[in-house]
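[agent] plan:
  1. take the single chain provided in the ticket
  2. run structure prediction with default settings
  3. attach structure tokens to the ticket
  4. add a short note for the reviewer (M.T.)
[agent] executing step 1
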Amino acid sequence: IDEWSILVPRLIQNYVKLKESYEQEIQVFISRVKKLDLPTSFGLAYDPIHDPDSYLSAILHLKPSIIALRAIAVEKLSPKKLIELITSVRNRIPPNIAIYIPGGVPIGYLGLMVGMGIDIFDDGAAYRSASNNITYFDGFFREDRMKTRADLITLNRKELEREFQAIKSSLKQSTLWLRIARDMHSLPTVASTIKIFLKTYLNQMELARISSHNKIKLQFTGDEGLYLPDVIKFHSDVVKRYRINPTKRLLVLLPCSAKKPYRESRSHKIFEKTIKKAAKRNFHQVEIWSLTSPISVVPRDLETVYPSAFYDIPVTGDWSEEESQVTGRVLAEMFSNISNDMGIIVHVSKGYQRMVEIGTTNRDVIYSWVDNFVTSYEAQKQLGAKIESFFQTLTEEQIFTKSQQTHKSSSEINSLLRYTHGQNVELSLTNTKFFGRPPRPVQVKLGNDHFFSWDVLQGRINLAPNAAINIAKTTENWILTDTQELKGSTLFSIGITDASEKISPNEEVLIFNHDKTLLLGVGNAIISGYSMNRVDSGIAAKIRKKCKLEVIYN
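[agent] step 2 finished; step 3 output follows
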């Protein structure tokens, strides 16, 4: 058997009355394959429509490199059926086994199939489309009865190749889902398939498999941005992992801005000047959130993280009902995490009113401005008056003086750490010293030792071992290994005994021994924790700092 051969059962079960004999034939096929001297890399075929589930389980035990999905003509299946088949198969097949659809995928479907986990394609769809006088042109379908069949095939193959190379480029740049959103315009059935997947099935994916740290700017053009994986992951993470500093007493909701981070924009500098002047000595007790779509709710401490600082969208001041519903829902979920005695002042234009109404149901809020000119003199005067009035109602016991605060950056640093490492993480900055300023990362020392670096512009904290040990018991980004000491700069999957499935690619991870009693190092994940637990080859993480520190459990 040659390397990369795909072994296929002889029969195709198309009729109910053949089911019994077909299943017997499959058993014979499996018994014969087991007797073969299989090469390192080989494939097995599976028909997700007709084959029994037991057959897929049986062939996975043989550890093939490829599973070829038979009987799937992508464009002939209903959108819902197609998504159900691909999703169910991909969820059962480990990440290090490639999936191949023989017969290819027409243009328009290609990006979505890659996004759903199909790995290998051929150009068979170019021939099928040509036989129906269909040609591919710039990502679209069109009928052409003037050209010969051979010419149509040539054109379609070239267009498929061009599309495939563009998708490979999108994967490298982490912009695949933006491309998929564009593909919705290629054909109505493609649009239906993508919409069903984004709205119904995407939330069933393990969101931790999606990277939380990219530098590519997302370009949103419409409501489809609400359902892209990067956006859905941010919605989930900001609700689960963000919490307001307990010293805060007032929450001010503001509109977003075209410039990111928002605090660098002209409008937000006007807002901050007004808030500082009105709050006076109590400014440190003011929490600021910005409302936008599709990102939803962005606390000031998270304005520099991906994707809140890395997106563009046409801003008209008015949001659609769908955008209002999604952002309002996220806002309501975030409000459920804060106490009812937190003051809330809303300073937004009319276009935001609907999302605020949805998000603040059952909450007492003070509206400062619901007009179209939130930065006007009159609007700022009203905002300042509302803030002054609020702080006048607080008692002395409710006021925290600045002397009771830690370093002024403590809140933002711990918010960034929680966004990466989990909601229970807290790092004390007592007796730390800060060196440097953006655009270079700020270096933080504890005594004479490096504690961590803070990339202010990218919204990232890189811990040194003596800081990492402080969150070792609470981090959600842990990897357990079969060693007591790390070697080299690379951690391979083969050496991992367990990993948190909350780890996303590119996130900072803490590496421990098998029982988590020794912190062995700090690094960055290459693949997700989900994949680490399902593959036994390849690079799992890059090791940044090695150590051997004991984790003390009370």
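[agent] step 4 note for reviewer: The CA atoms of residues 217 and 310 lie 5 Å apart.
[agent] ticket updated
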